[in-house]
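Sequence dictates fold. Next comes a concrete instance:
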Amino acid sequence: MASFVKQLSALATFAFLLSACGGGGDGTPQRPPPGPALPAATSLSFSGGSGEVEIAIKAPEDFLVESDSRGALLRRADFPVTRNNRLRDRQELDLPITVAGYVQRGGRPRGLRDTRDWFEFSADGGEVIDLQMSGSGRGRSTGDIDIRLFRERDNRPGKFRFEDASLGTTSNERIVIQRPGKYVLRVDAFRGGASYRLSIGELDQQANGVSTTSSLRSMMADCDRAEVGTGGVEAPCRQAIAGQWLMTPQPDVWVKLSAKSPAEVEAAQQQLVSSLGLNLEDGAGTPFMLATLAEESTSEIRRVASLNGMEVDPWEEDEAAEFEWNEEDENADGISDQFAMHFTAMMAKTAEEDGPTDVASVSLNFVNYSQVIPSDNENLTAVQFASHYGLINLESAWDSGLTGAQGNQDVL
């Protein structure tokens, strides 16, 4: 019978050992006598006896497999496995790097469970963390992986502050590192299991303008200081509201509700939202419900998180002394903005993927801001208004004769 063993050295060197069947009279495998060098080929075959061929294949220097991968755990009886699922056991990386790994939440024997991987590296700022997973990231029956980034405090070695996260529901998660420093990265399974390819390095020209819409930093965009996009034009900006969610029921559920009285519809909607520990703020009697926290407080966030089986802090309880949230609190409600938005994003995923089956979708409540005011050529608009534009009273919607005019808001 044939056996196949794969080992990975510190230099990311793979060694494959292939053993042929058969052996001597006592069943012990015997090496064949040396023969002529084999020509280049894609396969090997043996006849008349037994043999062993060892082939070493060296992977690129910027590629490795995370230390407690799925394959390593399956072979843990033969080879020691170095776990990297705790902060203290984090795996060190040198950038740029591509890492292959696997994480899974539940569904496997306890010895094979690997819900998260921790990595450590130093960055100059501007690098992109890009994770591609084998699961689609969406749906109750597929894998979904999230990534969270922490930066070591400048004057407190070994103490880390939450920096950013990518918490999407697609097969891709991405974060752009904003500043130099020493970082730790947590890759963990939100649901199910999936293989992943994690790349960390500088953004090449082809990937310029990389999308990070699922990152926490993007959700918390400061629309008063929107980034300048291509050609010097300020990019549109949107900002998620912490502690608010837009929910829609399943189509068949809404069809049944539509046949009931307004009071019965509102009561059913309130019951649906309340099952998640939330309050129906608006949208009663419509298929678009606005759900909110009963009160804006850290204790209320932790209560709702506990009710829905969520981890409100992205670290282990016995590691809490090593981590902290950013203390920025723009709306002065006594809650870290990072903490509140992280919970809001995770609550949306939890409610949609693992919540009541009557719920079709749960999304964040975004406020969209316009960042550019049209700057029409005055001579051109004068000609236009003098001709057919006047027939539809377009002059009243935009007065081009006023510097910085923003139009008449009463005209649509």
In short: Residues 52 and 117 are 35 Å apart (CA to CA). The first strand starts at residue 4 and ends at 8. The helical segments are 70-74, 216-219, 251-258, 262-274, 298-307, 337-354, 378-386. The radius of gyration is 29 Å.
